[in-house]
Amino acid sequence: MRVAIIGAGTIGSALAKALAESGYKVIATRRNVEKIRHLEKLGVKVERDNKLAARNAEIVFIAVKPNKVSQVLREIRDEISGKIVVSLAAGIPLKYLKKEAPEAKFVRAMPNIAILVKESFTAYSTEDLSEEEVKLIEEIFSSFGKCVRIEEEYMDAITGLSGSGPAYVTVFLEAMIYGGLRVGLPRELARIAAAQTLLGTAKLLIESDKHPAEIREMVITPGGTTIDGIFELEEGKIRTAIMKAIDAATKKSKLLSLKS
Q1: Which residues, at least 6 apart from 216, have a Cβ–Cβ distance to it below 8 Å?
Q2: How far apart, in Å, are the Cα atoms of 112 and each of 39, 90, 119, 229?
Q3: Is there a contact between 49 and 174 (Cβ–Cβ < 8 Å)?
């Protein structure tokens, strides 16, 4: 299976790496190809020519910024006729993509930067694909993490939650590390302890099907250390801040949709 990635920036390069390591033949494009030369070590062919890349692929990923999507689709329109095209651009709806290139079969997807370690959460929507083609796309998405098909109306919220989510999580992680430093832990010990705690808790949540509150109650004991920490978190309105962050990012994605 030959896959083209148009716009190998941060997410596009991560996608190219994950797909190449999973055995796909990958062509990646970027105006400054020197920035993605390192991908050649993985067997990725790097190109400046978007049309050439799209012509020589069976599936095409569009990983450029939202304001460049229209320009790219017009450029490669003749090369993607009848092909599956996956747009990773935030806020760009399927109807807009279809208007720009009616002959292509579109998927709108939102992965996150955890593609780099093949632990991305990818939500996607499509109206064009057959069941066989959906299986093919899910096989590709599954090569870099978990994937879920959703109604397109939820894509902006997914962008605000999981697309932007790694940034929120790193703010929380950094705060935990600094907290460890404040109470005297060596820097590397604080970093590993915080990261593994987050990883282990997430795995427990997924594999146990427990509500987050149930896991929290497993840790809190009357008069113990954890309840004092929880009290400070509640006073700092951490939950409100996180919910506001997701709301703000969702609204920005919707704004991009309105501009399309």
Answers
A1: 230
A2: 19, 11, 9, 30
A3: no
Alpha-carbon distance of 245 to 89, in angstroms, equals 20
Beta bridge partners of 146: 121
CB distance 111 to 19 below 8 Å: no
pTM equals: 0.90
**Sheet of 59-62, strand order:** 45-47, 25-29, 2-6, 59-62, 84-87, 105-110, 120-126, 145-149
Specify the DSSP element, H or E, that contains 156: helix 155-158
The SS3 assignment for 128 reads coil
Nearest to 142 by CA among 117, 122, 164: 122
Nearest to 116 by CA among 215, 35, 17, 202: 17
- The label of the residue with tokens 């991009």 reads 256
pLDDT digits (tens, 9 = 90+) for 56-103: 999 999 999 999 999 999 999 999 999 999 999 999 999 999 999 999
What distance in Å separates the CA atoms of residue 141 and residue 244, rounded to the nearest whole number? 29
Tokens of 159: 């962008």
The mean predicted confidence, pLDDT, of the chain is 95
Task: Go through the domains of the chain in sequence order and give each one's CATH number.
Answer: 2-152 (3.40.50.720), 165-258 (1.10.3730.10)
Beta-bridge partners for 127: none
If we measure between CA atoms, which residue out of 15, 12, 10 comes closest to residue 29? 12
